[in-house]
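Q: What does the predicted 3D structure of Surfactin synthase thioesterase subunit look like?
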Amino acid sequence: MPDAGWFSPCDEAAATCRVLCLPGLGAGAAVFTGLARRAPAGAAVRGVRVPGRESRIGQPPIHDFAELTERLTGAVAALPPAPTILLGHCLGGLVQFEVARALRRRGHDLREVWVIGHPGPGGAVKFPADDPLGVYQALVAPPPEILRSPGLLDLVLRGVRADLDVANSYTPASHVPLDRPVRLFAGSDDPQLPGGDLTGWAGHAGAGLEVHPYRGDHRFAGAEPAVLALLRRLPS
């Protein structure tokens, strides 16, 4: 039986599409609360709750990419059938891409994969695991209240350390291009996509890679308006 509690609750009765959103480095499903609130009625936006954070704070964090992908794939596959978009920010985008490949190998259908701010399987980098705060500050620019609260910062860095281990343990589980469209949201000032470099996606998006540029940095808040605009254009 797959793990319980992976997804934030949402009434899907009126939805024509399910959007499962995996947060980025050290973040939790709460970052997608605003997106879920403003999304059109036809889009059921649900955040992915990673072990070790938020409502799952008492569970051990996952430190291995293959384990995270396998467990999340099982959780997605166990949901009732529905047209589904997998969305991921930062490292979450790479995880969702590999979840999509795993689901397709199992014969499950998907609509698309939406990735925010990740250079792709061929552009995945190794991070210095001994400097989680430095990586977090460079990519996320955390609000001052987190940095001023030792207890809150320790809690956040627990997730960051786990995510760095996940990122550093990544090797592609398959080299078969994904047969579903990939949409990449690329910020103008995102250090993960310098100069809009897309070479890391070459040969992986078999059904096409469509880039959605936006003005902003690596943080999800900058990409949210572009994501919301695309959600509103989905067929009802």
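A (community wiki): The structure tokens above were generated from the sequence. The chain has a mean pLDDT of 92. The first helix runs from residue 33 to 38.
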